[in-house]
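Quick one, C-alpha cells below. Sequence please?
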C-alpha cells in the first residue's frame, strides 16, 4: 500500500491556511496507518492521462518516439507560424504525428499574450491558426492559451473559432503547489474552455513526483493532463523533462491500463470528445491603405506602450547582434509631444530599431501585390541610418525583406524616405524601422507607410483619404475634404465630436434656402484627395450619417484635361435620427474620366452629420 492509495478515504477539502495544512499533514500520517483501500476503487472510476506538448519545438519529437514506444499518443499544441523555423517542427513532422495517431491542437499563430491584444487581433491569432492547421489536413478541436493567459473575451473567441475545448494551466494538485487542489479534472471538464491541469512539468520534477500525481489521481478517476514543453537532456530550460525520466514514467504507466486500475493514456480530443467543427474565417485585418494614406498606427509615437512604456504603443524594439541599445521616450519631438530615441552605447555587431509590431493587423500594415510603398520617418541622428523592411506571409510568419541604402546623419529634424521594391509574392503585410548600426543616437518621430503607386486604388480598398474625417485641415474642413454646392442657401459647417467612427464627424446645416444644395466632398484636386478611378468600373460609396431630412449622393467626374463636372446622382436616402449607413453603387465610370468626387447632399433646410466615408472599386 502506498501513501497515496491510503488517502483514498480522506474527504476532499480545501485548506487555505498554512497552519491547517500542517495539521492535515499530521492527520495524513495517521491515516496511512489505519485506512484500508477498497480494491476496486479505481476500477469504477477510470483515469485518463494526457501528455500535451506546447509550441511545436523540435525536441518534442523525442517525446513522440517515447510515446510510440509504449503504444501511446499525445496532443501537440502548435503555433502554425513557427512551423519550419529553426528549432521547430516541420510540416513533415506534423504529418508524421498525424500518421501515428497523435492529436494536433492549436496554440495561436504566433504565441502572443492574448488578453493584451484587441478582440479582433485575438480572433485572428486563434481562428487563423486553426484554419491553417485544418488546411494542412489536421482534425483540430483542442486549443491551449499561450502562457495560459486568457479572459472571458479570449474564451468566447476560442469557442467562436470552432474549438471544442481550451486549456488553462494550474488548479490541479502539483508536486510543489496547489496541494489542496483536486487531483484530476472532471470528465467532461466543468468548463471546457478553461480546463485544469497540474503546473507545467519542469526539470526538477522527479519520476516519483510524476508517479505520485497519477496514483493520487487514480483514487478519484477523471482526467490528468501533463503539460510538457521541452524533452531535453543537457542545457535545458526549466520547462523540460529528460528523455530518461519520461521513458521510465511511461514504462511505469503502461501496465496500469489493466482492468483493475484502468489508467489509460489518451489525447485531449479523445477525452473531451466532439466532432471537428468547420473552419471559421478570421476577422479581416484593415485593408491595404489607399494611395497616399499613411497606415502606421500611433505614427507620431504619442502613445506609450502598455507593456513597455519606453517603446511606443503598436511598436516593438527590434534588433540583433551584440550591442547595447537603449530605447527611450523623449520630448524632443518633431510633432506632438513625444519622439522615440535609441542610444547605442557599445557595439560588436548587429543593429537596433523600433518597428510596427509583428502582428496580424492590429499594428502592422497590410500590403497588396503589385503596389509600390514609400516608408518614411522624421529623424535626427549623429550616425548613418537606413530602413530595414520585414514582410509577413499568409500563415503569419514574419521575415526579413530588404533594406534601403544608407541615409546621412542629420542634426536637425529631417524626413527620411525610401520607395520599397514591389512586395515579394508571399507578402501580405509589412513592417519597417529606421535602423542604427553603430555607436550613436537616433531620434525618430512621425513614421509613414503609404501606397505611392500612380493610378487608381486597387479593387476592394477604400480609395478615400482621411475617410473618418479625423484629421483637421487648414481651411476649417477635414483635411482632404471641402464643402460644395450651388444655388441660394446658407450652409453652416461644424466639426463635431458626435462621431460614428473615431472622434470627429462633420455636421452640415442649411439654415435658410431658396434653391440649390450643399454637401461635403473629397476636395476636387488632381490625384491627391479626389480618388483616381478606372474607366468601366463601378464604385460602391458608403457613409455613416444621421439627418433630419432626405439626402442623396451627388457625383462629380474629372476628365483627362483636369476639368470637373457633374456626373450623376443616387435616389433619395431616408432621414435617420441615429447613425446609419448610406450605400450606393455607381454606374460604370464613363470613358474619359480620371477621378471622381462625391458627397451626401442636403437640398432643404435641415441638417446632416456624416462620418466614416468609403469608396471601393468593384
Ligand atoms: Zn506555449
Amino acid at each position: 500500500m502506498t501513501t497515496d492509495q491510503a488517502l483514498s478515504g480522506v474527504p476532499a477539502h480545501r485548506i487555505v491556511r498554512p497552519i491547517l495544512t500542517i495539521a492535515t499533514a499530521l492527520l495524513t500520517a495517521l491515516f496511512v496507518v489505519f485506512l484500508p483501500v477498497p480494491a476496486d476503487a479505481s476500477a469504477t472510476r477510470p483515469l485518463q492521462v494526457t501528455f500535451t506538448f506546447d509550441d511545436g519545438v523540435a525536441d518534442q519529437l523525442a517525446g513522440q518516439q517515447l510515446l510510440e514506444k509504449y503504444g501511446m499518443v499525445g496532443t501537440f499544441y502548435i503555433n502554425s507560424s513557427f512551423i519550419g523555423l529553426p528549432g521547430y517542427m516541420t510540416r513533415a513532422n506534423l504529418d508524421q504525428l498525424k500518421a501515428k495517431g497523435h492529436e494536433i491542437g492549436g496554440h495561436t499563430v504566433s504565441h502572443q499574450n492574448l488578453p493584451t491584444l484587441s478582440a479582433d487581433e485575438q480572433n485572428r491569432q486563434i481562428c487563423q491558426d486553426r484554419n491553417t492547421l485544418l488546411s494542412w489536413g489536421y482534425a483540430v478541436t483542442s486549443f491551449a492559451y499561450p502562457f495560459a493567459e486568457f479572459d472571458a473575451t479570449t474564451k468566447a473567441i476560442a469557442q467562436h473559432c470552432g474549438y471544442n475545448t481550451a486549456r488553462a494551466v494550474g488548479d490541479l494538485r502539483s508536486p510543489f503547489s496547489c496541494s489542496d487542489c483536486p487531483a484530476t479534472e472532471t470528465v467532461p471538464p466543468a468548463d471546457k474552455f478553461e480546463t485544469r491541469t497540474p503546473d507545467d512539468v519542469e526539470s526538477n520534477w522527479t519520476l516519483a513526483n510524476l508517479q505520485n500525481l497519477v496514483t493520487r489521481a487514480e483514487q478519484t478517476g477523471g482526467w490528468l493532463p501533463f503539460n510538457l514543453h521541452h524533452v531535453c537532456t543537457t542545457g535545458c530550460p526549466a520547462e523540460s523533462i529528460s528523455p530518461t525520466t519520461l521513458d521510465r514514467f511511461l514504462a511505469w504507466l503502461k501496465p496500469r491500463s489493466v482492468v483493475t486500475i484502468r489508467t489509460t493514456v489518451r489525447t485531449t480530443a479523445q477525452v473531451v470528445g466532439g466532432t471537428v467543427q468547420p473552419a471559421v474565417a478570421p476577422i479581416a485585418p484593415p485593408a491595404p491603405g489607399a494611395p497616399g494614406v499613411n497606415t502606421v498606427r500611433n505614427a507620431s509615437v504619442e502613445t506609450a506602450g502598455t507593456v513597455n512604456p519606453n517603446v511606443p504603443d503598436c511598436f516593438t524594439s527590434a534588433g540583433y547582434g551584440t550591442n547595447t541599445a537603449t530605447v527611450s521616450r523623449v520630448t524632443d519631438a518633431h510633432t506632438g509631444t513625444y519622439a522615440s530615441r535609441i542610444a547605442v552605447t557599445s557595439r560588436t555587431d548587429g543593429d537596433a530599431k523600433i518597428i510596427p509590431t509583428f502582428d496580424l493587423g492590429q499594428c502592422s500594415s497590410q500590403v497588396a501585390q503589385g503596389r509600390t510603398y514609400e516608408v518614411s520617418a522624421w529623424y535626427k541622428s549623429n550616425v548613418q541610418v537606413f530602413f530595414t523592411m520585414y514582410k509577413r506571409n499568409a500563415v503569419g510568419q514574419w521575415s526579413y525583406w530588404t533594406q534601403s541604402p544608407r541615409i546621412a546623419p542629420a542634426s536637425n529634424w529631417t524626413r527620411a524616405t525610401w520607395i520599397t521594391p514591389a512586395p515579394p509574392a508571399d507578402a501580405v503585410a509589412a513592417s519597417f524601422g529606421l535602423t542604427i548600426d553603430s555607436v550613436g543616437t537616433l531620434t525618430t518621430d512621425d513614421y509613414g507607410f503609404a501606397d505611392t503607386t500612380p493610378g487608381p486604388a486597387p479593387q476592394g480598398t477604400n480609395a478615400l483619404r482621411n475617410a473618418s474625417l479625423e484629421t483637421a485641415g487648414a481651411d476649417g474642413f477635414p483635411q482632404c475634404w471641402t464643402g460644395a454646392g450651388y444655388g441660394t442657401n446658407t450652409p453652416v459647417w461644424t466639426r463635431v465630436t458626435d462621431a460614428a467612427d473615431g472622434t470627429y464627424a462633420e455636421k452640415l446645416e442649411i439654415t435658410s434656402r431658396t434653391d440649390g444644395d450643399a454637401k461635403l466632398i473629397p476636395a476636387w484636386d488632381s490625384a491627391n484627395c479626389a480618388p483616381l478611378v478606372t474607366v468601366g468600373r463601378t464604385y460602391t460609396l458608403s457613409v455613416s450619417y444621421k439627418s433630419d431630412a432626405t439626402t442623396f449622393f451627388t457625383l462629380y467626374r474629372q476628365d483627362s484635361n483636369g476639368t470637373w463636372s457633374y456626373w450623376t446622382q443616387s435616389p433619395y436616402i431616408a432621414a435617420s435620427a441615429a447613425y446609419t449607413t448610406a450605400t450606393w453603387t455607381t454606374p460604370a465610370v464613363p470613358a474619359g474620366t480620371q477621378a471622381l468626387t462625391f458627397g451626401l447632399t442636403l437640398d432643404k433646410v435641415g441638417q446632416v452629420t456624416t462620418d466614416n466615408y468609403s469608396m471601393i472599386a468593384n
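The two ends are 76 Å apart (CA to CA). Residues 18-34 form the longest helix (17 residues).
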